[in-house]
């Protein structure tokens, strides 16, 4: 590489980092200024001590876990079956899983409300539990592109067809094959999909607000509109959660023992 | 009645008839090889026995019970794949014990059987390793142990040695045969390597274009091939055409047919008991150790012949004019 191109590369990197970190630094700095004249963690203490924070955060964590379970149960068998028996259908399935990136969440939630309102054939929004279930399915849809890609990539690293046949010849049925052979071998991929799902669900606003559930996203929005310093502390916390998820993806990828051979 | 009976087996993929009226009776404890060029339908036959493909028609019976319609996991048939197909997330011991665990065998019995199988394949200390920590040859032995552990009725091997290097290939094929003999398990072994098939089989099925051309012992297949394809596919062959009157070097053989001789049926000089003598010129000399393979031009054809090395007689030089002799009884008529 010639020196000018190298210089240009570095300049681009520095610009990118500044573009990203300057607002973030401002955010962090401001969040520490709740007490006049000195830096303090007052804003964080207030936020974390807020019972509403605890309730909404707990709710969203729970919804994220439920979403991950539903996502895994839907995506792993589907991706497995498509790879094994219907390879011709892969482009179609991929297209469908990408739709949530194109269709805004607000369209999905209005569709839900229209289809499942209290006067419909299946009045899901009529009860708290029904609405929670609806929300979890909505989240599953939002997470679908990430979950499917992650699992499909994981399946690519193993010889799905031959491993399945080997297991069948040893007497295994579909449940055993999925649970004992396929899932463990794509676990790293599933976990990275799961952490992405977690990050999406924790901050999601539209679905939760329109279905009127006490989730973390709407709480963030409400605090942001009403308090001076706390929203900034919350934003930093949200960032921290997302980054922790990304870090965990790296970590599980590195610490999986039997997949090392393929790298 | 044979233990494993395959009768009138047919398989088509769309309009492509891949297996055509395939018949085979295998006795209990027999070691059968399916031998044929790539694409002739060997794997497809094996996969129908294992239950991974449904036959278009025909029957597969083990001990008189029809297998067609039974799912692969209900057949109790062991399978070894070319690509080993060990479960990467399980240790060697867990791989070998997988089938028994599925069957719900008690822990102690699984442990005992796993130890027994690992001793059988000569890897008693590697139970705790993961597949990626093993060499190809070791992985394939583990795959063999895994297939045998649940005591299957029939063992199927689909080109199990093709991915291994030459040395391991020979030693492992002998090991597979020894283990098969020891357990007395009925085995079908698929290969495209004629030497492999000839060296370890009780009987060989030579396949060509989805058809079983000939079924016989290695001795029969090699010495009395029943079709031109079998004659050409198995072993080396020298083909002689007779003249218009059906003569070869003055010996009456039969008009309108070609005749073939194996390299070891041709002799340098006039050997006792031979009735055909051909003048020839040596064109190549390959010293292989105990055997010397010569190529010569004789009777308008290029032929090869094998002679044993004799320390006191150097091989003829290239370009030497010699006589080759053979017995008309050793000639294989080609249809
Ligand atoms: N699932 C399949 N769909 C379509 N054609 C197939 C399928 N499996 C095998 N074939 C065709 O059947 C023929 C025989 O294949 P195979 O049994 O694998 O041969 P071999 O094992 O002797 O090399 C080949 O021409 C192959 O292309
Ligand atoms: Mg094959």
UniProtKB/TrEMBL annotation, chain A:
Record's subcellular location: Cell inner membrane; Cell membrane
Q: Name one Pfam family in it.
A: BPD_transp_1
Q: Answer whether the UniProt record assigns the keyword Plastid to this protein.
A: no
Membrane-crossing ranges are: 7-28, 57-80, 92-115, 127-148, 186-211, 231-252
How does this protein lie in the membrane? Answer: Multi-pass membrane protein
Q: Which UniProt keywords apply?
A: Cell inner membrane, Cell membrane, Membrane, Transmembrane, Transmembrane helix, Transport
Q: Where does the ABC transmembrane type-1 domain start and stop, copy by copy?
A: 57-253
> Is Membrane one of the keywords?
yes
GO terms for biological process, alphabetical: transmembrane transport
CDD domains from the xrefs? TM_PBP2
Highest rank taxon of the organism: Bacteria
Tell me the InterPro entries matching this sequence. MetI-like, MetI-like_sf
Q: What GO cellular component term, any one, is given?
A: plasma membrane
Family statement drawn from the similarity comment of this UniProt entry: Belongs to the binding-protein-dependent transport system permease family.
PANTHER family xref list: INNER MEMBRANE ABC TRANSPORTER PERMEASE PROTEIN YDCV (PTHR43357)
This protein is called Spermidine/putrescine ABC transporter permease
Species, as recorded: Gemmobacter lanyuensis
TrEMBL record, chain B:
UniProtKB keywords: ATP-binding, Nucleotide-binding, Transport
One Gene Ontology MF term: ATP hydrolysis activity
Gene3D superfamilies, per the entry: P-loop containing nucleotide triphosphate hydrolases (3.40.50.300)
- Does this UniProt record's set of keywords contain Calcium? no
Answer yes or no on keyword Transport: yes
Q: Which GO terms describe its biological process?
A: quaternary ammonium group transport
Record-linked PROSITE patterns: ABC_TRANSPORTER_1 (PS00211), ABC_TRANSPORTER_2 (PS50893)
| SMART domains, per database record | AAA (SM00382)
> From which residue to which does any coiled coil extend?
none
Identify the GO cellular component terms for this protein.
ATP-binding cassette (ABC) transporter complex
Q: ABC transporter domain location, by residue?
A: 4-234
The protein depicted here goes by the name ABC transporter ATP-binding protein
């Amino acid at each position: 590489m010639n020196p000018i191109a190298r210089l240009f590369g570095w300049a681009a990197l520095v610009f990118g980092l500044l573009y990203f970190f300057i607002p973030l630094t401002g955010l962090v700095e401001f969040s520490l200024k709740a007490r006049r004249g000195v830096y303090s963690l007052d804003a964080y203490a207030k936020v974390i001590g807020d019972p509403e924070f605890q309730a909404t955060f707990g709710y969203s964590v729970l919804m994220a876990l439920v979403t991950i379970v539903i996502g895994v149960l839907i995506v792993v068998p589907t991706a497995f079956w498509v790879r094994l028996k219907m390879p011709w259908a892969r482009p179609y399935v991929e297209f469908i899983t990408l739709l949530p990136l194109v269709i805004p969440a607000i369209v999905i939630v209005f569709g839900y409300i229209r289809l499942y309102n209290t006067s419909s054939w299946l009045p899901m929004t009529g009860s708290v539990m029904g609405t929670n279930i609806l929300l979890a399915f909505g989240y599953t849809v939002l997470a679908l592109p990430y979950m499917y890609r992650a699992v499909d990539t994981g399946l690519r690293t193993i010889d799905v067809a031959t491993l399945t046949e080997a297991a069948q010849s040893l007497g295994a049925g579909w449940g055993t094959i999925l649970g004992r052979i396929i899932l463990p071998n794509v676990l790293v991929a599933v976990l990275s999909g799961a952490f992405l799902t977690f990050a999406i669900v924790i901050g999601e606003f539209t679905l939760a607000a329109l279905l009127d559930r006490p989730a973390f996203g709407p709480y963030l929005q409400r605090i942001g509109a009403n308090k001076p310093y706390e929203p900034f502390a919350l934003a930093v916390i949200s960032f921290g959660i997302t980054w922790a998820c990304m870090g965990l993806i790296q970590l599980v990828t590195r610490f999986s023992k039997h997949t090392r051979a393929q790298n | 009645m044979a233990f494993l009976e395959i009768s009138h087996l047919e398989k088509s993929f769309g309009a492509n008839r891949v297996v055509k009226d395939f018949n085979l009776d295998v006795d209990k404890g027999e070691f059968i090889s399916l031998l044929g060029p790539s694409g002739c339908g060997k794997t497809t036959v094996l996969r129908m026995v294992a239950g991974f493909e449904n036959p278009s028609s025909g029957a597969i019976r083990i001990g008189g019970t029809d297998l067609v319609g039974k799912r692969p996991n209900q057949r109790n048939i062991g399978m070894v794949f070319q690509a080993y197909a060990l479960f990467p997330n399980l240790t060697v011991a867990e791989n070998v014990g997988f089938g028994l665990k599925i069957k719900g065998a008690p822990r102690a019995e699984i442990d005992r059987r796993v130890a027994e199988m690992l001793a059988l394949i000569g890897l008693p200390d590697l139970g705790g390793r993961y597949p990626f920590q093993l060499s190809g040859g070791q992985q394939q032995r583990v795959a063999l142990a895994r297939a045998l552990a649940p005591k299957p009725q029939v063992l199927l091997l689909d080109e199990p040695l093709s991915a291994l290097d030459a040395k391991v290939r020979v030693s492992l094929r002998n090991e597979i045969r020894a283990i098969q003999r020891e357990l007395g398990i009925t085995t079908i072994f698929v290969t495209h390597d004629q030497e492999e098939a000839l060296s370890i089989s009780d009987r060989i099925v030579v396949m060509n274009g989805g058809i079983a051309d000939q079924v016989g012992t290695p001795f029969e297949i090699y010495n009395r091939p029943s079709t031109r394809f079998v004659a050409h596919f198995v072993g080396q062959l020298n083909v002689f055409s007779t003249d218009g009157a059906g003569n070869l070097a003055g010996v009456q053989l039969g008009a309108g047919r070609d005749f073939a001789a194996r390299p070891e049926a041709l002799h340098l000089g006039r050997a006792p008991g031979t009735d055909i003598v051909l003048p020839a010129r040596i064109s190549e000399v390959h010293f292989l150790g105990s055997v010397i393979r010569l190529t010569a031009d004789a009777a308008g054809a290029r032929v090869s012949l094998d002679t044993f090395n004799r320390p006191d007689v150097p091989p003829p030089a290239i370009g030497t004019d010699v006589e080759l002799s053979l017995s008309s009884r050793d000639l294989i008529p080609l249809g």
